[in-house]
Structure formats: structure tokens, C-alpha cells
Amino acid sequence: MPEDPATDRPAGTVRHVLEVDDLGPDGLETVLRLAAEDPAALPRSLSGRGVALVFEKPSARTRNSSEMATVALGGHPVYIQGAEVGIDTRETAEDVARTLACFHRVLCARVMDHRTLERMRDALDAAGVAVPVVNLLSDRAHPCQALADLLTLRQCFGPAVVERPIAYIGDANNVWSSLALAASMAGIPTRVASPAGYGPTPEEVARVRSLGGDLLVTDDPAEAADGVAALYTDVWTSMGEEDERAARLAAFAGFTVDAALLARAAPDAVVLHCLPAHRGEEISAEVVDGPRSVVWRQAANRMDAMRGLLAWVTADPGAPVLP
Questions:
Q1: Comparing 11-142+302-313 with 144-300, is the CATH topology the same?
Q2: Which of 7, 130, 145, 209 meets the CB 3.0–4.6 Å disulfide criterion with 11?
Q3: Given 110, 121, 191, 248, the catalytic residue
Q4: End-to-end CA gap in the chain
Q5: Contacts of 140 (CB under 8 A, 6+ apart)
Q6: Residues 66-81, mean pLDDT to the nearest whole number
Q7: Rg, the chain, Cα only
Q8: Is 76 marked active-site?
Q9: Mean pLDDT of the chain, nearest integer
């Protein structure tokens, strides 16, 4: 098997994470355990190594969490704006990946098109280069966010979280998809309430359920919220959908996570939001800024989750990650 001089590891052992179920149930559990560890207990698996952070879209939480997680493992993060590499305008996605792999231990990217990540991964695998590709967000998936979400739910409810359903209210988008897949692998029941035309596809539902997921799909926010341990929402209009804003505001009327909807949840229920939040649209100010909101803990957990993920993708698969 070919060796990559930049990593001194067999190419076949590379751990790409383009979607959260790439981890598998065991990998998911390991990443969450690593994320909860004291950073001082983790091997500095990135010591003296670079991590490329390519951003075709702007970012606040993802950039900061990724940079600080890299530093915590002894590495050097390099933030690269989309215009600097010009994926498929200045250079192909494949050439960008091969170039960055010359300098970095991990290639992380936040992209417009999920297929870009797949092409990067495939180019590195075909060349026998053992540099993992990590999805920082694509139109299809947001695995790093889902890891922080599960970490937050475990902090709130402990092992009993597997007995407590969570409800996602709004557009069944990339954030919902990764959350539902991760929750299914962890044994957490999920519900999703979306207006007509904005719910999950039959293929997405089948994929979640194929992982053992207990999933309820509805167009009624009240039905989804009844008795749940957590209410989760996201913006109704994401980057790149601005021309749909008026139509989306009309379609999502009645889907706001407000005090009335929260009252239908369990008495100890918490509220999550991946941010940025549009108060008065998908969530009310009194809820997102209220005592049952764990949104800022969730945001802080992005760094811990990313640290756990980077520790996992850079670990020797044949050796324990922790002593």
C-alpha cells in the first residue's frame, strides 16, 4: 500500500467525514467521548502539522471552532477564502485538494456544492494520499454541527437522552439531515415538522430509519413538540436562498418556536438553534434568550466537537485514542 510522505500513514487508513454517518455508531461514540475529554488528556496528534480550512461561504462559529480545535491538538490552522483557491474557476477541486494535501495533515472545507467534497476525497484516495477530508458545511450536510448538538443534549440529559425525543421545527435542510442521522445512530428518537414542500424526501426518511432511527414526520409543529426534551430550529432562509425569502416567510408562518410551542414540550425541555438566529422569524426573542435556551452552550460545544473529530480522524485506527 502506498505511503504518503506528508503523513507516513497507509492511504487505506484515512478517515474522511463528509457526512456524520461516515463515522458509524462506534466512531460517533468515540468522537463524542473525545469531545468531552479534558483537552490536556488528548494526544497532540497535530503537533507541528497544518490543517487547511477552506471557506467558500463566510463563517463565524465554524471558523473559530475549527481554528481553536486545531491549536488545542498542537496544529497550525490556515484559513483559506474561496477566492484564494478558486475551486473550478482557477483550479479544479481535485487539483486544490492535491495541492493542499502537500502541506496539511487534514483538509477541511465549507463548500457550496457537496459534490466538491466528494471530488476532493476521491482525488486524494486515487492518488494514495492519506489526508482526510472533513466537511465543515455543504448544501447536503453539516456533520460538525450535529456532533455539537449531541454533545449538548448529553450534557443536558445524560444517558437518559436516548429515552427523550427531540423535535426539529422548520426546513428539513442540511442541519436537520445531519442531526437526524446522528441522533438515529445514538438511539435518540426524532421528530420533524415542516410545511408542505419543505419536509424531508422519502429517500432521506428511509436513510434515517435505516440507521435504526425512530422518526416522526409531520406538518404540525404542535404534534412534533408534544412532550419532547428539546426543540430545535434553524433559519428559514439560508445563504444562497435570499431570492426565496418572501415565499419562505409565507410558507413557514406558524412554525415559529415561541413560548406557546415551548409550553407543549416537556417541563425540563431545552431549546437549540445552530445560529445565526432571526428573532421574530423561526424563533422568538423570549425563547432564544430565555432560561431554557442552551444555544450558547451549543455554540461553545462546536469547538469541543471539532477537537474530538480532528483527534479521531488523525488517530491511528489500530491504537487507542486515549491512554
A1: yes
A2: 130
A3: 110
A4: 28
A5: 19, 114, 174, 177
A6: 98
A7: 19
A8: no
A9: 94
191-213 pLDDT tens trace: 999 999 999 999 999 999 999 98
User: Does the annotation mark 297 as catalytic?
Assistant: no
Amino acid at 120: M
In tens, the pLDDT along 246-286 reads: 999 999 999 999 999 999 999 999 999 999 999 999 999 99
Residue 142 among the catalytic residues:
yes
CB 136 within 8 A of CB 55: yes
Residue position matching grid coordinates 418556536? 257
Tell me whether residue 273 is one of the annotated catalytic residues: no
Q: Does domain 144-300 have CATH number 3.55.10.10?
A: no
Supply 288's cell numbers.
Answer: 432564544
CATH of the domain spanning 11-142+302-313, picked from 3.40.50.1370, 3.40.50.300, 3.40.50.150, 1.10.10.10: 3.40.50.1370
In this prediction, residue 1 carries a pLDDT of 34
User: Exactly one of 171, 234, 258, 304 is catalytic; which is it?
Assistant: 234
- Annotated catalytic residue, options 49, 145, 258, 273: 145
Domain boundaries, the chain: 11-142+302-313, 144-300
